[in-house]
Amino acid sequence: MTRLWMPCIPKCRNRSAFSKVICLLCWASRSPSTVGMGIKSGISGNTSIQEHPIKIHYTMNTPFTAGRMLGLLLLTVSFFACQKDDEDLTIDYREVFENYAEIVHASYEDSYRTVADLKTAIDDFVANPTAEGLESAKNLWLVARIPYGQTEAYRFYGGPIDDENGPEGLINAWPIDENFIDYVDGNATAGLINDPVNYPTIDKATLADLNESISETSIYTGYHAIEFLLWGQDLSADGPGERPYTDYVTDGTGTADHQARRAEYLQVVTDLLLDHLAEVRDEWADRAEYRTAFLATDDAVALGRIFTSLGELSKGELAGERMFVAVDSKDQENEHSCFSDNTDTDIRMNLEGIENVYYGIYTRTGPAADVIQGESLAQKAALVDATKADAVDAAFQAAETAVEAIPRPFDQAILNNETLILNAVEALRELSDRLTDMGFAMGAEF
């Protein structure tokens, strides 16, 4: 057997895959006499054998038939396919990050706007306390939780919401020990509201300074302080708190002392929440300093931040702190929105926020329900590793199904439906793992 070598291949080694294919075909089309020039008998004396990536065995007494040409063509196709593994897949993430920033800003903007609507309802209520006015304020608090719950998918990487100066602890801290704010069952004089001697002034600075100053549960600000002031303690076995509107009546017929201070606290704490939401919203506005810096960040670093946020919210925060701890302790004080029984929605909105980021789509809160949609991590993931991308899709579907299976309200589910909650916990942990795998495959720097 005589070994036939392709002398053109070493020269083509640094060319594109397509050029190498042309090289192969050119060689194959040579006349027999020309082909003979490329023959080296055996391997003795050939000092460059190891440099040649392709070897074709061919006997000179075999006609160069159409079948041989077909064989060479098949070899060429195989060579071209294998070449793909050796070339880097270049993906441009700029539009993904731009769309991410748009979604972040829009959802914080919706969070601010819905709390502004809540503040209007609260002002109207304290000016003229009625059962209807209190109910209107409660409903708007529930609406306000929809966009904010989705923004929690932007935490855990030191962004504007939770860097060293971030306001997250002033916006959404929990669990809350209501004794620090107002009266509770068995203690009619508990809380700042009922202590005008030590706290004669109720203003933003006082509340912000006191927040988490005594313990992790000494919460004076944010959504859950407002929630407590609207609903009161949840002492019901199958419903939310039932604070009477008369807690705010100041004409001498009201219930509970210090009605005017309670009203003042409710207005001040809601104004403070608006300040903090505006702070993070503005950091993500077009051309804002943080947004500009984020969009200029190296792809691997930016991907690492985003995937860290998704994975940590899914596993550590949502599956762990907000679900497993509650079901393990069987204590409704450990559920996220314990006064309003809104924890079910909180969980669903957190998961929706993770989906928003990965699939690059956000439906705005409001009558128009405008949709922001653009280039997504999911689209790029499918190009990088289709198998891992499919696993992420499946994990999202499993998590959605498991979360939806949890009966409402959550505080009763932790007592009576432990298995369903734990199924959701496991599905969310699996989702986190699949997202992390995908992040590594896409080159995220964790």
TrEMBL record:
<protein>
    <recommendedName>
        <fullName>Imelysin-like domain-containing protein</fullName>
    </recommendedName>
</protein>
<keyword id="KW-0732">Signal</keyword>
<dbReference type="GO" id="GO:0030313">
    <property type="term" value="C:cell envelope"/>
</dbReference>
<dbReference type="InterPro" id="IPR018976">
    <property type="entry name" value="Imelysin-like"/>
</dbReference>
<dbReference type="InterPro" id="IPR038352">
    <property type="entry name" value="Imelysin_sf"/>
</dbReference>
<feature type="domain" description="Imelysin-like">
    <location>
        <begin position="105"/>
        <end position="434"/>
    </location>
</feature>
<dbReference type="Pfam" id="PF09375">
    <property type="entry name" value="Peptidase_M75"/>
</dbReference>
